[in-house]
Each structure stands twice: as C-alpha cells, then as structure tokens.
Amino acid sequence: MTLLEAARSGEITEEMTLVATAEQMDVRVMAERIACGHMVVPRDKSGRATRLCAVGRGARIKVNANIGTSGDYCDTAAELEKLAVAVEAGADAVMDLSTGGDLRAVRRALAEAAEITMGSVPIYEAGVQAARKGDPLKMTPREMLDAVRMHAEDGMDFVTVHCGVTKDVVAALEATDRVCGVVSRGGTFLSEWIKRTGQENPYYEFYDEILDIAREHEVTLSLGDGMRPGAIADAMDRPQIAELYVMSELAERARAAGVQVMIEGPGHVPLDQVAVQMKMAKEICRGAPLYVLGPVVTDVAPGYDHITSAIGATAAAFYG
User: Which site among 96, 149, 230, 313 is 20 to 30 Å from 216 CA-CA?
Assistant: First the structure.
C-alpha cells in the first residue's frame, strides 16, 4: 500500500505524523490532503531520508537545492560537500542533476549521505549515456524507461519525468514563434528526439510502466515542464498551456494508480502574471502541488537569477 492509498483508507502512518508535527498541522487534515492529491510527502520505500517534508496545500514553502557534476567537472567529494552545505543552509530537498562521470556512483553516494528528500532527472542519464556512444538522440524507448527504474532503485524520493512533451505539444511548439525556444534540458532531449524519430514520447506512450515503477518503489512523480518559457515574452504561449493540460491528465492517472504526483513550472513569466500562472496551474491540475521553477520575472539580470527567482518565488507562494 502506498502512502496515497494509506491516506485514502484513513490510515495515519508514522510518516504522516512526523511531517504533520513539523508542519504544525493536524495529521488528519494532512491525510485528507494527501488523499485528494493536494499534498505529497515524497519518500522512497526504503526509508532512506530521515527528514521528510510535505509539499502542497497548507504546507510551508519548501526550498530545493540543485547539485550535480558536469562533463567539465566531476568530483563526488565536491558534490557531497555541496549536499552538506545545502543541508546546513536549511534546504528541504536536493536534486542530483549530474551529467558527468559515473552518474550512478555519484547518485548512490549522494543518496547514502542525504538525510533530506532527494530527487533526480532520469532522462539526463539516458541522454548522457547515448551521447557517450556518439549521439544523445539515439536513446531508445527502453533506455529511457530503464533510466527511470534505475533512479527509483537507487533510492530517489521523487523523479522528474517530462511526460508532457508529446508529439502534439511539439507540433504546437513548431507552429509558435517563440523568442527563446526550449530551455528545459529534458524538454530539449525529448522534443528533438520526437522530431528526429517521428515517434511518440516514450514517457507518455508508456506512462503506465512509469506508474508501475513509481508504485513499486514509492517514488513521487514530478511532471517536468519541458515547454516552460525561457523568456517572459513566451509566457502563457500555446506550447506551455498545451503541455500543462497533458500534465493534468497524467496527474489524474497517477492519483488513480496510487502514485503521488506534483507539477513543475512555470519558468520565465512577468511579475504581473505570476498570480494567474499559479491559479491556472492549480485549476487545470486540480489542486496538485506545484514544484515552482522560478518564476524568473525578468530577462535582463543575467547572473542574478537567484535574486529574480526569489522575487518570483515569493509572489508565487503568496498566490498559493
């Protein structure tokens, strides 16, 4: 039985009690919000993380720290140091976005050391491994799906999967005169793969298999926004909204399968649009928790995204 199913059955688990205490929330209220999909408590079934957190309705705002190697610099010790700094600074979660070195060894080392919630992006693994063989777009559907299973097996509490980048969404992108194209790395991998192969996104086509993996390992799905705007001029355009509707459908399927799910977005949006972006995402996705990227509220402050994002995130939190 997953945490979502336990909440639906009226069972109060130890995890719910611990997190409700930290949130200063009635545990029965928390269970009700988990049951209806308005709140998630990402946690791998192995119990690796000892400091769990709730994301969603009524919970305090959480901070996620991104770390990870690159092709230019790969040092596991340095990543462990970053993890320690993130924890000391009060991060609620950390994501391993590694793209260099032995990806699995780095991920496992971080998972072993992390006491807080941890996530990752499986498509990076598939793309990097294909690139090492000469072409990142030569990923096979099986390799993409196997990457999700591998990350689940390695103890991730949540994984970002760009399931909403479908053939129809890519067609909407191609028909739109975007200023900044696709800025999501996962979105770029999948949109270009779709255009080259003519096939449907395996993360969408074989979503039931992803749900089976998530259910087996008690992994929360974070539906990645591959079409998020990379410039405020692109905010609220057709590809962004089209993908959001696909993610809404997929979120409902996850809930029906007993899998916790949250929605990522929205990227670069003007400050006066933050409120409507938050309300729109909540409405379309039926109250699913939001994993907010940014919002980055100006394009004219390169090098200061930590500040412009903090401004956008504050507004996003205010508007729910």
Answer: 96
Q: What is the pLDDT of residues 185-244, one digit of tens each?
A: 999 999 999 999 999 999 999 999 999 999 999 999 999 999 999 999 999 999 999 999
Find how far residue 148's CA is from the centre of its chain: 13
8 A C-beta contact, residue 248 and residue 285? yes
- Encode pLDDT of 260-271 as tens digits: 999 999 999 999
Place of tokens 């999948």: 190
Range 276-309 burial, b when 16+ CB lie within 10 A, else e: ebbebbbebbebbbbbbbbbbbbbeeeeeeeebb
CA angle in degrees (0–180, nearest 5) for 99-191-219? 55
Q: Provide the phi-psi class of 218: left if phi over 0, else alpha when psi is between -120 and 50, else beta.
A: left
Among residues of the chain, what percentage have pLDDT more than 70? 100
225-257 burial, b for 16+ CB within 10 Å, e for fewer? bbbbbbbbebbebbbbebbbebbbebbeebbeb
Q: Which two tokens stand for residue 69?
A: 């190697």
pLDDT-derived band at 154, boundaries 50, 70, 90: very high
Q: Classify the C-alpha dihedral 22-27-29-35 as positive or negative.
A: positive
Rounded distance between C-alpha atoms, residue 255 and residue 261, angstroms: 7
Q: Model pTM?
A: 0.96
Average pLDDT along the chain: 96
Distances (CA, A) of 13 to 41, 58, 155, 181, 259: 11, 19, 20, 44, 16
Q: How many CB atoms lie within 10 A of CB 63?
A: 13
Helical H segments across 9-56, by residue range: 14-23, 27-35
- Number of other CB atoms surrounding residue 61 within 10 Å: 12
125 in helix, strand or coil? helix
String of DSSP letters for 287-299 = T--EEEEEEE--S
How many residues can be counted in the chain? 320
Q: Could you give the CA distance from residue 176 to residue 235 in angstroms, rounded to a whole number?
A: 12
